[in-house]
Amino acid sequence: MRLEDLDTPVAVVNLDKLEFNIREMAARMREAGVCLRPHVKTHKTPVIAHIQLREGAVGITVAKVGEAEVMASAGVEDIFVAYPVWGEAKWERLRRLSHRVCLRVGVDSEVLAEGLSQVFAQHGEKIAVLIKVDTGLGRTGVSPGRPALELAREVARLPGLELKGIFTHEGHIIRDFGSVGEIDGPVRDVARKMRETAELLRREGIEVEEVSVGATPTAHLMCREEGVTEERPGTYVFYDATNVGFGVVPEDRVAFSVWCTVVSVPRPDRAVIDGGTKAFSSARSPKVEGMGLVRGMEGARFAWANEEHGVLDLSSCPGALRVGDRVEVVPVHVCEAVNLWDELVAVQGGEVEAIWPVLARGKVW
Ligand SMILES: Cc1ncc(COP(=O)(O)O)c(C=O)c1O
User: Fold this and answer.
1) Which terminal residue of the chain, N or C, has fewer Cβ atoms less than 10 Å from its own Cβ?
2) Given this structure, which CATH class describes domain 16-236?
3) What is the per-residue pLDDT across 29-86, written as a single tens digit (0 to 9) for each?
4) Considering the entire predicted model, what is its pTM?
5) Ligand 1 pocket by C-beta < 6 Å: which residues?
6) For the domain 3-9+249-357, what is the CATH superfamily, name and number?
7) CA angle in degrees (0–180, nearest 5) for 239-294-300
8) Ramachandran sector of residue 277 (left: φ over 0; alpha: ψ -120 to 50; beta: rest)
């Protein structure tokens, strides 16, 4: 079947671009001597995780226990749950999962470490733990330096836990800066905080095997920073309009798009497509004008959307679209968009090659 024969809206993956993106990142990490453990929150699709592993990833990263369970059932053997997993029920699921795969989990508080420790220790078992360090995002994580040391001492003391190292997500860099051209200093700053924290722990006799960092826009710089052992970029498999707006890659590198059909042209300067927030999510970004990039149409601006309606502003190209025309749109934030789809259609040279179920979508627990 050809791409143009697919009914819309439809989530499409360009296989050539996907494989290029995966191989490029893998080669970059290999050259830098850094392990690649991609965050699969972007695609949530076991088939794509296996392509990443085939191309050299040491394992994967997830945010949810449910995502880890799906990936484990699909044959992924090494998983890092980079999230402060809380509660007896989830710790028990982690314990059961740890019998099936090589598992590690993030921790950023004593109370969480204690709960996790109890569940594993009472069975005489252990789980590998990494301490989350907040290097500027202001989300989860202990501060670098002494606060990280204090938590590390606690984790090292607790039975049932095996301290592997520290990790951070430098997502504030794309949030706080205008383009990739401005991020050399901020990347060095994150790397310095992680290096100094690791050194502090080691001076206190605590082994730090892993110093894990991760974000797509910083990966090319971060992998060259001394002390970094592992990178966890996620969005790079597809990229999205936010990454394009930040200058990470040109638009033609984006491997994911949603094909839509124009269903209404109430005025020459407005076209309405059959994809709205249910197809793209409500994501907006200061790096993107509107709700996505309309490929191949400079003048068309994806101005706003309701659930089933996407409104394109054609004031700079009035009359450019008619009812029945098809448009290809790159979402603002691909991870949120993919989470809305049951299936991704993999296309090569305009031909449908495969339909991939997004098995780990919607795993909120
Ligand atoms: C903990 C963690 N690691 C890695 C990533 C990957 O970052 P990016 O989406 O920029 O590739 C994320 C993304 O949200 C994350 O939360």
Assistant:
1) N
2) alpha beta
3) 999 999 999 999 999 999 999 999 999 999 999 999 999 999 999 999 999 999 999 9
4) 0.97
5) 39, 61, 82, 169, 171, 214-216, 232-235
6) D-serine dehydratase-like domain (2.40.37.20)
7) 145
8) alpha
